[in-house]
Design brief:
This protein has a five-stranded mixed β-sheet with strand order 5-6-9-8-7, sandwiched between helices. Strands 2-3-1-4 form a four-stranded mixed β-sheet, sandwiched between helices. Strands 10-11 form a two-stranded antiparallel sheet. Helix 1 crosses helix 3, helix 3 (69-81) packs across helix 8 (210-227) and helix 6 (182-190) packs antiparallel against helix 7 (195-206). It is 40% helix and 11% strand. Among the domains are: 66-137 and 151-159 and 171-175 and 208-244 and 284-337, RRM (RNA recognition motif) domain (Alpha-Beta Plaits, 2-Layer Sandwich); 356-522, Poly(a)-polymerase, middle domain. The radius of gyration is 26 Å and the shape is globular. With 585 residues, the protein is of the alpha+beta class. It binds cytidine-5'-triphosphate and magnesium ion. Pfam families: MTPAP-like_central, RL. One of its GO terms (cellular component) is mitochondrion. Residues 69-136 form the RL domain. One of its GO terms (molecular function) is poly(A) RNA polymerase activity.
Length: 585
């Protein structure tokens, strides 16, 4: 479920917009103190020591403008607990609305957005304000339909009095929750002066906003309120592109039902003396337990979850999940459980993205390019996934001279005792302290890297070699598959097992074409109507690469005058032409 297109207009912020990856956040220490106190109560001393270590390294990271994903999670989860989501009427007076809510306590932040109507996210300074607010909330009545009496923090604002037309919500500023359409992006990029600026501009336009990130954590928190009916200590955490730094506005919301505090994974048992243990029902395997939990929670989401529609239980998948649309946020949601390796790969991607700003920019650009040409798709199939593409970009950056990012094996070697993690026999250990990671000095520009990325994969020996970010070197393929990308943690798995030969061929052909286009001065320099110019600017540089017609095929280029491309690319284009001719004959 996506937010309707008419709401995609960029609207100004009602308060200063900062980004998910913003540097130097305030009130972190306060939040961590609370976190430690909570962990002490609910988990035990060992975890607190590990957390204290993490906190120290986080404090020094924060000085350097970086924080761990764990800290980000804690901070956002805590904000979400103090927040409510309110469906508003467009005739409501904004000032009155805030005044009405402020009766329950100080409001830290609020923002409006549109998704099947106008919604407000309101974050109070204190949790008690939410309790106080909910005490005064009425049960809906007066309809011919009966309501399921499940109370949540998703509310509707009713205005029973007269309508005040002087300061209506219609004048409010709404936060965009989806990306600008591709045509608009192409125009925007065409006005930039350099390809480097185009890449930064694309990243800026597509990345998740502060508000969108808050909304994602709020949806997790609302779902947690359903799951805690059965599992009071559980949490629901976002993973994947919602939090790994590579999420695009409108991307799906992957969630993990975390039961670790109940399953005993984090609890130390006494070694001697009397103790009690819970009697618990047993199933044949951990997978069977996950399936039964997701089945029940999925049923509750379907039957009781306000705003949750189209619930599908996909329990026989390799990773069982419940899929649904959360209408008030517009998010397509995937709820999984016991999926701790995916959380680790999310942490890893987040870490790589924080190491060097070029990582995120290149990933965003390649993902956007791939989507524009149908290399990736929102429908599952034989396409390359965004996750695979991201790993391919990381691998490419490890292969630069000198490398821009280290290998996963190197990150494992830098790990401290608190970083040790083995999940289902898989070594998922890697360093979490950014300060221990020494980067080499590589000064390549984004423009150079983009061109080199296309050349790299235009010539990669896919038929023989596997992509391996653990080693930072291609390895002999362990199995027959058109594209083999080793899963970073479950090393016997191929991340791109789904990709068929024709999709890989298309990807390679598009890389060849795009590399060639970037080498043409006609494409790689700004054309008329550049920055400040009037009218629709002529696409150039990255904007050209996003135009499907430009990267369409080699046939159309035969007639055009060519400039010398690199020898390698020329050879490749020749071989591709011959291949096409052979196919036709
Ligand atoms: N994942 C994984 N192995 C896979 C597929 C996914 O470990 N074969 C993990 C990754 O951490 C990934 C997350 O599951 O980030 C979510 O998967 P998916 O939604 O497919 O990818 P995203 O990275 O979230 O990208 P998108 O924006 O397309 O949703
Ligand atoms: Mg996802």
């Amino acid at each position: 479920m996506r937010i309707c297109a008419s709401f995609r207009k960029t609207m100004a912020s009602s308060f200063a917009v900062c980004r998910l990856h913003m540097r130097g956040r305030a009130s972190l220490a306060k939040c961590l103190q609370k976190t430690d106190a909570f962990l002490h109560r609910s988990i035990g001393t060992d975890v607190v020591i590990a957390r204290a270590e993490a906190t120290r390294s986080d404090e020094s990271d924060e000085k350097n403008g970086r924080k761990s994903l764990h800290t980000l999670h804690m901070e956002r989860q805590e904000q979400a607990e103090r927040s409510v989501l309110i469906s508003c009427q467009s005739s409501t007076n904004e000032k009155k609305f805030l005044k009405y809510l402020s009766k329950h306590g100080e409001i830290n932040k609020y923002f409006f957005y549109e998704s099947y109507g106008v919604y407000a996210v309101v974050e109070f300074a204190n949790q008690e304000s939410v309790t106080s607010l909910l005490e005064g909330v009425a049960i809906p009545g007066g309809s011919h339909e009966s309501a399921v009496p499940f109370k949540s923090r998703l509310l509707s604002l009713r205005n029973l009095g007269s309508v005040d037309s002087s300061n209506q919500l219609s004048g409010r500023q709404c936060q965009p929750q989806t990306t600008i359409p591709i045509n608009e992006l192409i125009k925007r990029l065409s006005r930039e002066e350099s390809i480097d600026k185009q890449i930064s501009s694309l990243t800026e336009a597509y990345q998740l906003t502060e508000e969108n990130s808050r909304l994602r954590f709020l949806v997790c928190s609302l779902l947690k309120d359903i799951a805690t009916a059965y599992f009071p200590e559980c949490t629901i955490k976002p993973f994947g592109s919602s939090v790994n730094g590579f999420g695009k506005l409108g991307c799906d919301l992957d969630m993990l039902l975390d039961l670790d505090s109940i399953t005993g994974r984090n609890v130390k048992l006494p070694k001697s003396g009397l103790s009690l243990e819970y009697q618990m029902k047993r199933a044949n395997s951990e997978r069977a337990v996950t399936q039964s939990i997701l089945s029940v929670i999925g049923e509750c989401v379907d039957q009781f979850g306000p705003g949750c529609v189209g619930v599908q239980k996909i329990l026989n998948a390799r990773c069982p999940l419940v899929r649904f649309a959360h209408q008030p946020s517009g998010f397509q949601c995937d709820l999984t459980a016991n999926n701790r390796v995916a959380m680790k790969s999310t942490e890893l991607l987040y870490l790589y993205g924080e190491l060097d700003p070029r990582v995120r920019s290149l990933v965003f650009t390649v993902r956007c390019w791939a989507r524009a040409h149908g290399v990736t798709s929102s429908i599952p199939g034989a396409w390359i996934t965004n996750f695979s593409l991201t790993v391919m970009v990381l691998f490419f950056l490890q292969k630069r001279t000198p490398p821009i990012i280290p290998t996963l094996d190197h990150l494992r070697d830098l790990a401290g005792p608190g970083d040790k993690s083995v999940i289902e026999g898989n070594d998922c250990t890697f360093v979490s302290d950014f300060n221990k990671i020494q980067l080499q000095s590589n000064t390549e520009t984004l423009e150079q890297l983009l061109g080199e990325f296309f050349e790299f994969y235009a010539t990669f020996p896919f038929s023989r070699m596997s992509i391996n970010i653990r080693k930072g070197k291609e390895q002999n393929k362990p199995e027959v598959a058109p594209l083999h990308i080793q899963n970073p943690f479950e090393t016997s798995l191929n991340v791109s097992k789904n990709v068929n030969a024709s999709q890989l061929d298309r990807f390679v052909a598009l890389c060849q074409e795009s590399a060639w286009l970037l080498q043409q001065s006609e494409t790689s320099t700004p054309r008329g109507g550049g920055a400040g110019g009037e009218g629709a600017p002529t696409p150039w540089g990255l904007a050209t690469l996003l135009l499907p017609s430009q990267v369409a095929g080699i046939k159309s280029r035969k007639k055009r005058r060519r400039e010398p491309a690199s020898e390698r690319i020329k050879g490749l284009l020749e071989s591709l032409k011959n291949k096409n001719q052979l196919k036709k004959s």
